Amino acid sequence: MIVAPVALLSALFIDANTFWAFVFFLVTLVGFSISGFGAGRIRRDTPMMHGSLAGIATYVIIQLFGTLSRLVRGADINLASYPVLAILAGTCGVGGGLLADWYQRKSFRADEV
User: Fold this and answer.
1) Where are the domains of the chain?
2) pLDDT category, 99, cuts 50, 70, 90?
């Protein structure tokens, strides 16, 4: 819900060599982390693994739309960047899952006291 509009706006209106492209990129990374946080809260037994998978799944969906928009516009497609960005999305998802695990452990301890 966060990453899709940001990525769509970035792909359509932002030039790749501007400050705003960097801002939209950071917001997209935060979105991958939020998806990892959500998956980590749902699966308490393996939050980081599911956070990583959620980040990668979010990336694949967003990249599908980005690739289609580039093809329609006739822009260049850089296939070498896809695995690097997938790893980055998975890493952000792991961070979100780690944060979810920490949050659940902290709130669980507070309930015991």
Assistant:
1) 3-9+20-112
2) very high
